[in-house]
Amino acid sequence: MRLSLPSPAEAASLHGSYSPPRSRVRNPNTQDVHTAAAREWRYQLILNRDLRTPAARSDIARRAVRGEFVRVTRGAFLPASLWHDAGPDERFRMRVKAVAALASEDLVLSHASAAALWGLPWVGPWPDRIDALASRAYGGHSTRTVCRHLPTTDSEPVMIDGLLVTGLACTVVDLARSRGFTRAVVVGDASLNGATRAELAAPAALDADRLLEELERSRTGYASSRARDVLEFLDARSGSPGESVSRVSMWRAGLPAPVLQQSFSPWFVDSWWPDYGVIGEFDGESKYRDPQLRGRRSPAQVVIDEKTREDELRRRSRGFARWGWDLARSPAALAGRLRRGGLPAH
Question: How many CB atoms sit inside 10 A of residue 239's CB?
Fold first, then answer.
């Protein structure tokens, strides 16, 4: 989302007596992976501390009650239009940025907060608190809004949207240690196939070896075995969060691992079991709802194209199975669907 940058005069007329956002000194050696325009979010965010008078603070509170602004977190407001136009991922990024802007130190955002700023997918609701690394000045004390974590490596943070964030490899390894297997696999698969925010400059090439190297550099052995299990399961060919969740459910159900993204020209299929001639496809809603994925096609045309594609794939295979999110999350239900599609029981 590109945000328009108000002038100081516009900010004053909108928000009463106004102090421009405070800038902090950054390490000039910090890798910058965001575009210049990405910092504009800070000028849309209104902090109580930037309003110089009690009258200005009362005015913004009244306007929030009227629905003109939304309180993102205590002491921070955004124009309601921005909030209502944003989806769950973007809203969480807004909240992360608001909490970071209110902090009395430069937070190094980590774990789920870093994943959000990198644009990695997340399965389920985002956390209530943002994640940040413990610092020498403030120690490991967590608050109602910030959950602090001890750093596990000496990796340098990068800068995204003007905020310090753990590097991509460090973020994935931290989540592999601390989150459930399925959620960590979704994040890890996406990191390997380059599914970060389009407006970010591409980070250094990330592969399974790089992630395992990051794990080996850790200062602690905490949850290393669990993290290694996640990292060794990752596959860059997994094309979406739904496909990643499906892979985990197949593994838990004891099903044979499929070949991913097998070519059936002119298409690729999500899962293919060559020994049994069975094709499996995760059918998410985004292909029908997301204008970027539809291209210039209407939702109705997408349905027609999908039916034509499925008919041809069924003709080229001995079995075909399609499923959505409910089955992807259930190993038993997904196994049943695949067996009915032609995959033998094991």
Answer: 18
**Torsion angles phi and psi, residue 281, rounded to 5:** -135, 125
pTM of the model: 0.85
135, β-bridge pairs = 139
- How many of the other CB atoms lie within 10 Å of CB of 313? 17
CA 251 to chain CA centroid, nearest Å: 23
Q: What is the pLDDT of residues 243-261, one digit of tens each?
A: 999 999 999 999 999 999 9
pLDDT in tens, 79-114: 999 999 999 999 999 999 999 999 988 999 999 999
- Residue 110 in tokens: 């980590």
CB neighbourhood size of 241 (10 A)? 25
Rounded CA separation 248/241 (Å)? 11
Kindly provide the residue ranges of all beta strands, DSSP E only, lying in 41-91, ordered along the sequence. Answer: 46-47, 69-73, 76-79
Rounded distance between C-alpha atoms, residue 338 and residue 345, angstroms: 9
Residue 29 is predicted with a pLDDT of 54
Q: Is 228 in a helix, a strand, or coil?
A: helix
Select from 194, 201, 278 the least CA-distant residue to 238: 194
Backbone angles phi, psi at 269, to 5 degrees: -110, 150
3-state SS, residue 149: strand
Residue located via tokens 């608190």:
129
